[in-house]
Amino acid sequence: MTEFLFSYGTLQLEKVQLSSFGRILKGDKDALIGYSLSQVEITDEAVLAQSEQRFHPVAIPSANREDKVEGVVFEITPAELLKADAYEVDDYARVAVTLSSGKKAWVYILKEYAQ
Fold this sequence. Notes:
The protein is α+β, with helices and mostly antiparallel strands and about 120 residues long. It is built from three helices and seven strands; from the N terminus they run βαββαββαββ. A three-stranded antiparallel β-sheet has the order 1-5-2. A two-stranded antiparallel sheet has the order 3-4. It has a two-stranded antiparallel ribbon with strand order 6-7.
């Protein structure tokens, strides 16, 4: 079975993919419509070591339906989706969305906006 995971941030980095999934992911450019980006400060030492970035982008719903977040949609396995869950810190929640391309995918957004 295949899952689609949309990334607009550090999951696009090869070093994060290698340490999280043990391989480089293949993906296609896509966009998340009706969202904009904010920042979250990362304090988890393991995530900091993988990404080497103190601040990570985080998607939040926008009042403007014209807003969009550019990124990449990856085809991954259900087991890899669980590994992505382990990588993301508690500030994020995984939700199902429909991307600009029409693909149904998972994406991590700011937890307080998850339903």
